[in-house]
Amino acid sequence: MTAPAKAAPKTPPQAKAKVKVKAIAAEPFMRFTIRTVAARTLAVLSALREASDPDEHRDSLADLVVELTESGMDYYFLRALKLAKAGFLVE
What is the pTM of this model? Predict the structure, then answer.
């Protein structure tokens, strides 16, 4: 007859590291790589807030959204493809 196998001793769970939670800023955070885009964004947003009729600024807001989208696409997506030498068709 064989002896019953001993159960492996349980190890105590390791203490989890405490995560520090930063306080939420009172102001929204915007990060831009180009200072002119940041200045233009703040100017358009200020004009929208102060305008009696915000519809007057819809064209400048639309242009700004397009510019932000293109700069983000170039910086975060196309730049990585170019560094990876993915080729023209992938880009």
Answer: 0.51
